[in-house]
C-alpha cells in the first residue's frame, strides 16, 4: 500500500487538547514493550491450541501432545514460552507435571480475540 492510498487530513491542524490527553494516557515504553511481547506469544497457533486445550481441563504434557497430535518435545517447548509469559502454571503430581491456565485473564483475552474476528 502506497502512502498516497492511506486516508489523511487535507490540511495540518494540531488539536493540542487531543494530543495532550493522548500523551498523558499513554503507558510508558517499558509497559508498551511488555504488552507487545505478550501479544507476540498469542501469535503462534500451536500456543493458542494449547491454551484452548487447557480451557477444558488441566493436563499433563503427554495428554496435550496426544490431543493436539504433536510430539511431547514440541508441546514442552511451547509450554515453556507460555509459562515464561505467565499464561500457564504447573504443579507436580507424582512423576507428572500438570499444566493449567494461570488465571481467568487468559480466557478473557482469547474470548475477546475470537469475538473480534467473528464480527
The gist of it:
The protein has helices at residues 16-25, 29-41, 45-56, 61-68, 72-84, 104-118, and strands spanning 59-60, 88-93, 96-101.
Widest sheet, order of strands? 1-3-2
- Indicate the mean pLDDT: 92
User: Roughly how many Å is the radius of gyration?
Assistant: 20 Å
First-to-last CA distance: 25 Å
Question: What is the CATH homologous superfamily assignment?
Answer: Winged helix-like DNA-binding domain superfamily/Winged helix DNA-binding domain
CATH class: Mainly Alpha
Number of helices: 6
Shape by Cα distribution: elongated
3D architecture notes:
The chain is mainly α and 119 residues long. The chain has one domain: Winged helix-like DNA-binding domain superfamily/Winged helix DNA-binding domain (Arc Repressor Mutant, subunit A, Orthogonal Bundle), CATH 1.10.10.10. Helix content is 60%, strand content 12%. The protein is built from six helices and three strands. Strands 1-3-2 form a three-stranded antiparallel β-sheet. Helix 4 (61-68) packs across helix 5 (72-84). It is elongated. The model has no long low-confidence stretch (mean pLDDT 92).
Main attributes of the structure:
119 residues, mainly alpha, Arc Repressor Mutant, subunit A, 3-stranded antiparallel sheet
Amino acid at each position: 500500500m502506497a502512502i498516497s492510498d492511506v486516508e489523511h487530513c487535507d490540511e495540518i491542524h494540531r488539536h493540542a487538547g487531543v494530543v495532550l490527553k493522548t500523551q498523558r494516557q499513554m503507558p510508558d515504553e517499558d509497559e508498551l514493550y511488555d504488552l507487545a511481547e505478550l501479544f507476540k506469544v498469542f501469535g503462534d497457533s500451536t500456543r493458542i491450541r494449547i491454551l484452548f486445550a487447557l480451557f477444558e481441563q488441566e493436563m499433563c504434557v503427554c495428554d496435550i501432545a496426544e490431543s493436539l497430535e504433536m510430539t511431547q518435545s514440541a508441546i514442552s517447548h511451547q509450554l515453556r514460552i507460555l509459562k515464561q509469559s505467565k499464561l500457564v502454571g504447573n504443579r507436580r503430581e507424582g512423576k507428572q507435571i500438570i499444566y493449567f491456565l494461570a488465571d481467568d485473564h487468559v480466557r478473557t483475552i482469547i474470548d475477546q480475540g475470537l469475538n473480534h474476528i467473528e464480527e
